[in-house]
Amino acid sequence: MKAVRLLEYGGQLVVNEVPTPTIARDEILVKVKSTAVNHLDLVKASGKARQILPIDLPWIPGHEFSGVVEQIGSGIAGYAISDAVFGANETGGGYAEYLAVKPAAIVKKPSYLSFEKAASVPVAAQTAWQGIFTHGHLEKGQTILIHGGAGAVGAYAVQLASHAGATVIATASAVDEAYLNSIGASRVIDYQKARFEDVLREKVDVVFDLIGGDIQKRSFLVLKEGGHLVSAVQPVSQEEAAKHRVSGAMMRLEPSADVLGRIARLLEEGTIRPDVATVYALQDAAQAWKDITGNLPGVHGMSPAPGAERRMSHGKIVLRVDA
Ligand SMILES: NC(=O)c1ccc[n+]([C@@H]2O[C@H](COP(=O)([O-])OP(=O)(O)OC[C@H]3O[C@@H](n4cnc5c(N)ncnc54)[C@H](OP(=O)(O)O)[C@@H]3O)[C@@H](O)[C@H]2O)c1
What we know:
By secondary structure, the chain is of the alpha/beta class. The chain folds into two domains: 2-121 and 274-320, Quinone Oxidoreductase, Chain A, domain 1; 127-250, 3-Layer(aba) Sandwich (Rossmann fold). Helices cover 25% and strands 26% of the residues. It contains ten helices and 15 strands. The strands form three sheets. Strands 3, 4, 5, 6, 7, 14 and 15 form a seven-stranded mixed beta sheet that branches. Strands 10-9-8-11-12-13 form a six-stranded parallel beta sheet, with helices on both faces. Strand 8, helix 4 and strand 9 (167-172) form a beta-alpha-beta unit. Helix 3 (122-135) crosses helix 4. NADP nicotinamide-adenine-dinucleotide phosphate is lined by residues 39-40, 123-124, 127, 147-148, 150-154, 171-173, 191, 210-211, 215, 232-233, 251-253, 295, 297-299, 310.
């Protein structure tokens, strides 16, 4: 099969012919239609976080994907050949024509959703869900502040929190205000013009931090006692959390068929919507990686590539594997 691989830490992506995976009795072989690009791919490939995010080289990136069921392990029920599915896994492998997955990593794809859009959902939407509900314990009637609300994860967090009946405040660039209002934010704070802690009139129940650094530190100032600071980008100081009488946690996505199934239902009923910024062919993955290095807030040890343009449109970069 055709696959895009990384042969060494910090190396270039190359297109190779590699053996198609064989499946165990508890696995499904998915013929991949689309996959999406995540910061995580680049962080792992750089080797800078290899102590906590190791990869086996050569490595096929791609933590989320959509496709059709090609083969089913003998121990699996509930799927049929040709079922359209989408999902996420922790080890990658989506930048290839075939991928072997456990059924817990996938759910059936909403029929109205294209394979390209479906591939853009699992990582960002599940991160948002687990960040605000599993770790942030957000409830109806509460207020949440989402840092980086216009990004891929942030936009799902805004939509999910708003649907759950919370008041949503997001920090973002001014240019994203109308977009964020249209998906459920009641207030947008332009992070380039104002310090959120200076302009917020009331304290919030939950902060979801998708930026890190100083933004995270200053977030303690706006949390109610008993509130929750959840970061998807860097550890939260337990000392500061105790001082402010709040909880603080860094989360890491744990792909879950249960959570993705709930997300699929919200997509199906049109409650949340996916956004795709750009679609590339699989063999152009290296160019897609150049694009995303323009938008790397809070990614440990990484900075935009020299000359990289900041991406101004919303949504994810998708790779079309099988047109
Ligand atoms: N822990 C996990 O399991 C997990 C899972 C998924 C993602 N993540 C991490 O979550 C982070 C966000 O991912 P993403 O895919 O949503 O990123 P993204 O799509 O690139 O979005 C980043 C957003 O942050 C905005 N931004 C930049 N600086 C800001 C600031 N100081 N204040 C407010 N907004 C700011 C950007 O807006 P402008 O372009 O206008 O500046 C952009 O809209 C990344 O660091 C990623 O690695 C973690």
